[in-house]
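Service request form, structural biology core

Requester: graduate student, group of Dr. S.
Request type: structure prediction, single chain
Budget code: on file
Notes: please return the result as C-alpha cells.

Sequence provided:
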Amino acid sequence: MVCSGFTRLAAALVCLWGLLALPAQAQTDTEVDLALVVAVDISFSMDTDEQALQREGFAQAFRSKLVHDAIRGGMLGRIAVTYMEWAGSPDQKVIIPWTVLDNSESLMAFADRIASTPLRRAQRTSISSAIDFSVKLLEESGLNATRQVIDVSGDGPNNQGRLVIEARDAALAKGITINGLPIMLRQPGYLDIPDLDVYYKDCVIGGQGAFTVPVRERDQFIEAIKTKILLEIANLMPGQSLISRIQSPQRTNCMAGEMQWRDRWSN
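Core staff response, request fulfilled:
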C-alpha cells in the first residue's frame, strides 16, 4: 500500500512539474529580438524582371554574413521572419511562415526557400491590406518579440482597400514599426506617382526608428534590400542628410492612388 501510494505521489509530482515547466519552455522558445514581416508587392505594375530582382535581393540578404552577424549580436541572438506577398485587397499570401533564424543553417535554408518560390503576379495595389494582414500575422505569431517590424516594398501608391494612413496608424498604435522600400526603377506612368519615396515617407512608414530605402536603379536593387534588412535586424537607421530645408515640403496626398483609380473609371 505504501509503495502504491508513493508511486501515485511520484506520478502526481511528475505531472505537476510538467505543467509548470512546459509554459516556461514554450516562452523561452518564442522569445526573439525581432519579429519581422517581409511584405512584398507582386502587383502587375511589377514586371517579372523586377520581381526576380526583388526575390534575389531578399534571398541574398539572408545569406549575407553581415546579416548573420547582426542577428548574433542581438540580446537573444535570434529573430523570427515571415515572408508574404501582396497585391489587391483580397490578395495576401504567406510564402514562408514564421521561422526562427538563429544560425547560418536556418538563414541559408530561409534564403533558399525565398529563391525557389515561383513568381506570381496579381491585380491592384493595396498597401493598407498588406499592413492589416501583417499586423494579424504578428498578433497570431505566438512570439515574444522585443521589436515588431513590417517591411513593405512596392512600386506604386495604395489604390484599393481602406486608406493607407488608417492602416498605418492602427499598426503604430500597437507599437509596430513600418519601414518602406519604394521601388522607382521606371519613369512614372499610368497609375504611378512621381515621388513614391515621399509618398512612402508621408503615408506608409511610421513608428520608432522608421525609415525608407528607395530603389531608383536596377543595379541598386539587390544591395538596397540587403542594406534594409541589415538595418532592421541591427535596429539602425540609414545615414541622414546633413542638409535640411528651412521650409517644410508640402505634404503628399495620401489618397493619390485612389484618386488616380477613380479618374481612370470616370473618364
